[in-house]
């Protein structure tokens, strides 16, 4: 069975994650309830004719995938697999608004064709002329992990040698206003929104696109090997530790072998206890990292975490801004990522040098 | 007629998201498709919707589109002659 290596990464997020080394320009914004991407110069990557119809999620996905390919020194791949929670929600909103505003008449095609969840994967395939396997997973907060799992199996089974895998989500004004009404996004006026010391329910929302070139061989450009990925849709809080131990044991590892753990803490007092009980007990002696204070919460925010963990293994450094505790290790060779959203859709991803 | 041409240029720029193009960049006789503005078949559908929604003109024969959407000049002339609103 072939191994799966991360050989190139590209990330567009609320932080300057392009044209930088590793979060040296990161800013922890505690005053906004919705974080927007720090946009690159799209025209450097996409032709003016194509760009005018693209919503930001598509543009971010294309740029992040181009950065990942460049990083891996590849021009094309055998397959493209994406994960997204809400897809191209901006164009979906536009299209639905048009239907209502115009009484189901005068419907234009542009926002409709760009509104499907697989638009990003399709546009990347078009720009690369990649006619291989192209699939998009829409599985809530495990959309990205589903994509990674598929890619890993394709590589292990020799179905593909190189795969572009990404997680993309974008903010839509109407959708975020509904999330705010429903309490999924924190209420205005409750600043500072401190992820590590939350005082309210809901989260600070965000958006972004992170892409990875996965290959079946180790190269000069390799960041890490993906050892394992596991998805559990439902788990009780008191089952998490056992589940993680079983997951690690399946990979011949113990908790003490983990050099750093990345938690999906998002500042929601109702559900962050899933992480804090692990942080205070099983992983008390392990360096703990967090990221949603930088990326914001969205269904594929865990792709930002994978980008971050890959960078930690490559640079062997942990920027202060992502540290939960002050525990350090001489080397960061094995990293565990644990994410969940609202107590559901749990995922464990294991990386090694 | 001049006001209508100006209005059409504005609508085309906004509806088709022609970000880098200003009204003064579009000459009345510039071809809208191909070498001129470089519009494509999806844009043609958007133009058909503009005719219907804003000027009450329904194009029944798609072949007509080729001559109507040749330039701003031809579009404005067709709209002036056929508009119902």
Task: Please describe what this structure looks like.
The complex is a heterodimer of chains A (about 350) and B (about 80). Chain A has about 350 residues and is α/β, with parallel strands linked by helices. Helix content of chain A is about 30%, strand content about 20%. Chain A has eleven helices and ten strands. The longest helix of chain B has 15 residues. Chain B is an all-alpha fold and about 80 residues long. Chain B has a single domain, classed as ACP-like (Non-ribosomal Peptide Synthetase Peptidyl Carrier Protein, Chain A, Orthogonal Bundle). Chain B has four helices and no strands. Chain B starts with a helix and ends with a helix. In chain B, helix 1 packs across helix 4. The chains are: A alpha/beta (about 350), B mainly alpha (about 80). Chain B: This is Acyl carrier protein. Chain B: InterPro entries: ACP-like_sf (IPR036736), PP-bd_ACP (IPR009081). Chain A: Keywords: Transferase. Chain A: This is 3-oxoacyl-ACP synthase. Chain A: GO terms for molecular function: 3-oxoacyl-[acyl-carrier-protein] synthase activity.
């Amino acid at each position: 069975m072939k191994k799966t290596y991360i050989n190139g990464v590209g990330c567009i997020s609320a932080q300057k994650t392009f044209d930088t080394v590793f979060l040296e320009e990161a800013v922890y914004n505690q005053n906004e309830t919705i974080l927007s991407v720090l946009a690159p110069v799209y025209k450097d990557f996409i032709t003016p004719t194509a760009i005018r119809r693209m919503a930001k999620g598509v543009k971010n996905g294309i740029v992040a995938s181009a950065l990942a390919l460049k990083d891996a020194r590849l021009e094309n791949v055998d397959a493209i697999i994406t994960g997204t929670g809400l897809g191209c929600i901006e164009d979906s909103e536009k299209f639905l608004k048009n239907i209502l505003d115009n009484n189901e008449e005068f419907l234009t095609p542009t926002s409709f064709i760009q509104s499907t969840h697989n638009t990003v994967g399709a546009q990347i395939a078009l720009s690369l002329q990649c006619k291989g396997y192209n699939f998009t997973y829409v599985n809530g907060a495990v959309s990205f992990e589903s994509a990674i799992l598929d890619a890993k199996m394709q590589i292990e089974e020799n179905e593909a040698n190189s795969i572009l895998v990404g997680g993309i989500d974008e903010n839509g004004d109407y959708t975020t206003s509904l999330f705010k009404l429903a309490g999924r996004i924190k209420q205005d006026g409750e600043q500072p929104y401190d992820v590590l010391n939350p005082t309210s329910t809901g989260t600070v929302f965000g958006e972004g696109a992170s892409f990875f070139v996965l290959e079946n061989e180790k190269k000069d450009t390799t960041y890490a090997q993906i050892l394992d990925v596991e998805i559990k849709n439902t788990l009780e809080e008191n089952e998490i530790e056992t589940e993680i131990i079983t997951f690690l044991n399946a990979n011949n590892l113990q908790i003490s072998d983990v050099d750093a753990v990345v938690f999906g803490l998002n500042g929601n007092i109702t559900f962050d206890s899933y992480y804090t009980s692990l942080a205070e007990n099983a992983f008390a002696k392990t360096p703990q990292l967090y990221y949603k204070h930088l990326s914001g919460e969205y269904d594929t925010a865990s792709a930002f975490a994978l980008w971050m963990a890959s960078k930690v293994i490559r640079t062997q450094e942990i920027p202060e801004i992502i540290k939960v505790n002050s525990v350090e290790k001489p080397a960061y060779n094995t990293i565990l990522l644990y994410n969940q959203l609202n107590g559901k859709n749990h995922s464990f991803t294991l990386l090694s040098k | 007629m001049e006001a209508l041409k100006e209005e059409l240029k504005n609508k085309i720029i906004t509806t088709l998201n022609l970000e880098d193009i200003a009204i003064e960049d579009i000459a009345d006789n510039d071809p809208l498709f191909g070498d001129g503005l470089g519009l494509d078949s999806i844009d043609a559908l958007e133009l058909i919707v503009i005719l219907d929604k804003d000027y009450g003109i329904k194009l029944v024969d798609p072949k007509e589109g080729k001559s109507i959407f040749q330039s701003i000049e031809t579009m404005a002339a067709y709209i002036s002659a056929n508009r119902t609103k």
